[in-house]
Amino acid sequence: MEDTALFTYCMRLADDSAILSQRLAEWCGHASHLEEDIALTNIALDLIGHARELYTRAGQIEGKGRDEDALCFHRVEREFNNLLLVEQPNDDFAYAIMRQFLFSAFMHPFWEAVMNSKDEQLAGLAAKAEKEAAYHLRHSAEWVIRLGDGTEESHNRINDALEFLWMYTGEMFECDDIVSSLVARDVAIDPMSIRHLWDETVNTVLARANLERPAETWMQTGGRKGEHSEHLGHILSPMQYLQRSFPQAQW
Amino acid sequence: MYTQALNNPTVEAGVEDEQKLAAFQARIDREEKIEPNDWMPAAYRKTLVRQISQHAHSEVVGMLPEGNWVTRAPSLKRKAILLAKIQDEGGHGLYLYSAAETLGVSREELVDQLLSGKAKYSSIFNYPTLNWADVGAVGWLVDGAAILNQIPLCRCSFGPYSRAMTRICKEESFHQRQGYDLLIAMMKGTAAQQEMVQDAVNRLWWPALMMFGPSDKDSKHSAVSMKWKIKRFTNDELRQKFVDATAPQAKVLGISLPDPDLKLNEETGHWEHGEPDWDEFYNTIQGNGICNRQRMKDRIKAHEEGAWVREAAQAYAAKQAAKKSAALGGRT
Fold first, then answer.
1. Which pTM value belongs to this model?
2. What gap in Å lies between CA B259 and CA B184, rounded to an integer?
3. Does any CB of chain B come closer than 8 Å to the CB of residue A34?
4. What is the ipTM of this complex?
5. Amino acid B7: pLDDT
6. What is the mean pLDDT of residues A95-101?
């Protein structure tokens, strides 16, 4: 493979989208009200779109004939490189919303910056994904504020979610050798370069939601190296079951 | 997804102003649309609220059997298609609740009627989806039956319902094609995939025929709905159209339909078919289908677990309104 770094980079981003969309899809038919059912599905659909493009791109770079489905459905837990944040469960709506907010507050400026990537395909995807991420951020931020400044119960629930998920936010800003090498080629961005934007969004929204930003703490890591929480295996089991049971089949 | 003739108790016509009634009927006969603020007989209003809300409930409950496969869809493309389709069903529920609201009931009241078991929804959604081909069979047969029921509703005399149905029918026709496409892909595949398709069709064929409601000889109250142009074809007429359209499609697909009496009558050009098991139909309507209790449990769970979210949104909106009014008050 010519460009292992870009392959890995695409796979990481694809896994983030695929796993988060799978989590969001779990709400389909079960959300608190129809409007929100449709909104969560919308976000899931956007993310599936990103995953498909990124897996396809990764497969082309790899050059072994693996398509989007081969990459998504025929790898095991240790081969998935998504952030730990996106695999965290839907304990309640507050967890789903806070997970989305913390992620989208990063992904919106991320895609905006990647629009300038020297890799044309990545830049092209970024131009589309940036608009979608803007909506994901707006939708989730509005809910963080509503829940934080709603009832005592909703405040407590969104606060619990924030405290639970906070330790998974550090991973978004990690920059290993793979990312650094792509930053040097103007293909990828250094996530620390958008840290101030994430901080600003998070601080503004949490303040409007009457929520206190958690103190800086020990941050979890491992997702990018395939070291996950126990949840990932349970996400992959139903997701991959048909492909693995009938490996010869086309669907 | 669709509405079903459920043989609800006939609404008593009641005493209405005869002149108004005559003028109303004359408008219907001229194919004019009745709009929410127009005068209408109480029984017309009641029939429509019942039918539109049953239809809305069917859309929402109908999200569950397909939702059963969302996390297990076998490819990213199929997952996206399925999610988008279920999302459409949720959207149909929304337009239909809104259409019902124009008749003076609230969505909350209607949802309460569903969750308390007072309101009915289509019997088809009380059947389980047991393999991936069920997702395709639901699109082909269930949405296919729904379209035949719904196309005449685009010409329904009540404006908001007819306009909602125009949009819904377009989306349903897309759903039907995606279902058929899914089945074709599987029929081109391995023996195991072909078996799944045949199994799904074997299980869903009769329930799909039941979607048109009881046989005309047992359907007591179609007459008034026909006169008011809420309904335009009888249950058996629509069922026949469905069989005529579907039987040749089954041949193209390369599967058999589980009805030994099914045969083309060369003279009439219609496909003759056997009778569905009406005992099963009535039992399913009355709550005894294999999934009735589970479907209601799932709806109630989502509603109850979502209560704090809806309350928070209302509390937040109230706080914002109070702030706005305080700010305005401060300036005057």
1. 0.94
2. 21
3. yes
4. 0.97
5. 43
6. 98
